[in-house]
Amino acid sequence: MSDNLKRAAADRAAELVTDGMRLGLGTGSTAAHFVSAVGERVRAGLKVVGVPTSEATREQAQREGIPLSTLDETPDLDLTVDGADEIDDDLRLIKGGGGALLREKIVASASQRMIVIADGSKLVSKLGRFPLPIEVVPFGLTATERAIVRLLDSLGMSGELVLRHAPDGAAYVTDGGHFILDAHLERIEKPNVLASTLNNIPGVVEHGLFLGLATGAILATGDGLVELGQ
Ligand code: 5RP
Question: What does the function comment of this entry state (predicted)?
């Protein structure tokens, strides 16, 4: 069921793609449906260029026959379509469940529009139930972890930080060669404050709070599509 909903949101987003667009291609199971839908349209003659947000998406887009570029060659994008782990009414997001948050945030920031596609279960009244991914450099992991805990304390927040592991049991390594700490916070009362202060900690590369980046969302529910923003 959920997969059909993801596909429905992705298909609607693919309808918004027009000839000549420079596209940011998101990562995750919902974004994969979008890449597949764009691939179908490209094989039918649509002319676009895509900038993938992960190596996994690059491989999929190549298989689909979507012409690809890098963000260095194509630094201004028209539209990025990506999934999310949580989205609130103000189009604030938690992303990074799939581990691609750093490239996703760089690509979204280079886009005129970012549309989030998701099944309706991702819409929340308050962010934070989904553990917040924090990408950190491996060097000094323990020191960085302690600095994050001190920051959370100072903000009156608490929650376990869990180093993400790959299925083989080793620490999960991102496309950028970093680790991810998943912060189990339950509620994020002030996303802006947390986002800006996390970015001040040496060793933190990026975090999964996407604030002011999404311009629209397409949420698929059992009752149909809900579109927010544009
Ligand atoms: C990857 C992401 C994904 O967009 C997010 O995890 C949603 O994934 P899915 O569509 O598989 O639920 O942020 O880093």
Answer: Catalyzes the reversible conversion of ribose-5-phosphate to ribulose 5-phosphate.
